[in-house]
Design a protein that fits this description.
Blueprint (H helix, E strand, L loop, with lengths): L1 H46 L1 H5 L10 H20 L8 H26 L5 H26 L4 H12 L1
Helix pairs in contact: 1-3, 1-5, 4-5
């Protein structure tokens, strides 16, 4: 009978871990969407509105669903990668470092390659605006990611003591 109970407890713990992982994944994706939308909307429409108004190749009316879909895809990929690193079980700083790492891939393209390919009004201000907004965005995302994946020592201790009983 004890063996059967141990199996049930192990299955229950695995199920709970799976539920927790999926919850953290969904929260991490939503955190990415929030960090991206808040940072980039503030940059595009408030702080750097003149910078973006000077660009002749931007749509007058952006297609927001495509941007939102892009954020969902990126957030899903970043969450997937983060959950498979040892950083996912570390500190807030480790989450921010991870976010800066993946953000570096996106921001380097936006800040540097777009300035090289497109006729931006001024290259140096373009790089400064895009790199600055990207740094804020991925710092914000890293902080949110760190809070989502933080260890809950008290709740872990309580669930462990309950399982022992």
């Amino acid at each position: 009978m004890k063996s059967a109970m141990a199996t049930v407890n192990a299955y229950s713990e695995q199920s709970r871990d799976g539920d927790t992982s999926m919850k953290k994944h969904v929260l991490a994706v939503l955190a990415y969407v929030a960090a991206t939308f808040i940072t980039q909307a503030t940059s595009h429409f408030v702080i750097n509105a003149d910078h973006y108004a000077a660009l002749t190749y931007l749509r007058k009316d952006p297609i927001f669903p495509l941007g939102f879909l892009s954020m969902l895809i990126q957030g899903s990929i970043f969450s997937y990668l983060y959950m498979r690193t040892s950083a996912a079980r570390r500190s807030l700083l480790e989450a921010v470092k991870f976010s800066w790492l993946v953000g570096g891939a996106l921001v380097s393209y936006i800040a540097l390659a777009e300035a090289a390919k497109y006729s931006v009004p001024a290259v140096v201000p373009w790089i400064a605006v895009e790199a600055g907004a990207g740094f804020v965005q991925f710092t914000f995302y890293g902080i949110l990611l760190g809070f989502i994946h933080r260890e809950r020592k008290l709740s872990s201790a309580l669930s462990h003591s309950t399982a022992i009983q």
